Backbone:
């Protein structure tokens, strides 16, 4: 079963706009990660935020984490057509070795 | 590019058959995880192998089994294939010592069961 849910399921924006995706999870975690997947390809790791942090930046990416609400958000600023992909949040917990569990994903479409 | 390679990239089987999917880990990684991704869904955790031992399993029946070899490469075997097994199967390697669970994925093997 998947760890949580992402919202929205799909998002369509114009190039240059910001895209915000939200993720909720159910159990305690060591960290939360975001991955990107181009259509039918493997997933690529984007950013990781540890459970004792509230915010992290990497280039055009900004991730927030609220462990009290068990939720996270990914903000992509100044989006580009090349950002069109599916984005997945994933939680990692150390249960006799780290296990990384994924949400259902947000499909982002950036129109040029 | 992650350095994780999977084979075959595509394959077609019929119900009841058996399939073996293969994965070569990124150099230096000692852990392999397998995921099943149905169309339009997120990856579902099948199991993880660490130092040749199964180290956690998701909600998959015993007909899904795996192996990890001394060089940390891995196989996923599925017996008695069902139509619902049609999916993209993703292998991901990681280094347990990193303490993060960050995964490096291959491009996947797309299985179609007819």
Residues:
């Amino acid at each position: 079963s998947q760890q949580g849910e992402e919202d929205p399921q799909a998002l369509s924006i114009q190039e240059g706009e910001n895209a915000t995706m939200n993720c909720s999870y159910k159990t305690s975690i060591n960290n939360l990660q975001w991955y990107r997947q181009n259509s039918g390809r493997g997933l690529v790791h984007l950013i990781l935020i540890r459970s004792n942090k509230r915010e992290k930046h990497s280039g055009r990416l900004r991730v927030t984490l609220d462990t009290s609400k068990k939720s996270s958000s990914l903000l992509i600023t100044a989006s580009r057509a090349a950002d069109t992909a599916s984005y997945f949040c994933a939680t990692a917990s150390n249960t006799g070795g780290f296990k990384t569990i994924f949400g259902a994903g947000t499909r982002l479409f950036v129109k040029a | 590019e992650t350095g994780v390679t999977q084979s075959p990239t595509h394959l077609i089987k019929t119900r009841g058959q058996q399939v073996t999917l293969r994965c070569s880990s990124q150099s230096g990684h000692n852990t392999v995880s397998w995921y099943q991704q149905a169309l339009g869904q997120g990856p579902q955790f099948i199991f993880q192998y660490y130092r040749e031992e199964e180290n956690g399993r998701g909600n998959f029946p015993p007909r899904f089994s795996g192996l990890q070899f001394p060089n940390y490469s891995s196989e996923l075997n599925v017996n008695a294939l069902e139509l619902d097994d049609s999916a993209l199967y993703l292998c991901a390697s990681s280094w347990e010592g990193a303490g993060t669970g960050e995964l490096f994925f291959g491009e996947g093997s797309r299985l179609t069961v007819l």
